[in-house]
Amino acid sequence: MKVLVTVLAYNEGEKLARLIDKFRAGPEYDILIIDDGSTDDSFSRTETSPAQVIHHKINSGVGAGIRTAANYAKEHDFDVMVIMAANGKMLPEEIPRLLEPIESDKADYVQGSRYLAGGVSPNLPLFRKVAIRIFTTFTNIILGQRGTDITCGFRAYRREILEHEGIDITQDWLGRYEMEYYLHYKAIRAGYRVVEVPVSMVYPESGKDYSKIKPFVGWWSMIRPWFFLILGLKK
Known about the structure:
Spore Coat Polysaccharide Biosynthesis Protein SpsA, Chain A; seven-stranded mixed sheet
């Protein structure tokens, strides 16, 4: 099974450098860094990296990064794509946890969860904890699922999901956080096997700079796919 691990980076600088160091042991997968128009030194930090790097000229969002990675995976015939952030909250050593259900043919899409036994989330801010629980309950009701952590961005997909005839990731409105939830909704509706595995989501002790999701604008970006798809306003 040919695996592509995609690291989405925007102005992560030192965090990205530390993450790259954790990959230097020679993993059994290829690494692709999407530098999404960073204005700090993130791009220069990748110059000595063993990873393939694609640089967006302007900041286009998480969804655009996933789209770029999906195109790369198709061009280079990868079977599975892992998505993770460059902010240091996700641990490269836990990637095998995401891959195992796919490798053993028990799943097509694997969602990381900080709330399953074996998962942890040290220093998680209280507001974020409450919001995650509410949002996850909301999506479970819509989809008839029993997921525990819909907002965890540490995921693995069979490439075929990204190319399914009923799933169109090229749509312009999927540029930012919409993409992750669009794929979640569509994968379940298309009948793909979805499982969760325990992962770590390590937040900074300072309680600051733990997320680039902007209040209201970012929240709407996460919520609106559900309304658009349920009401048939988007395909």
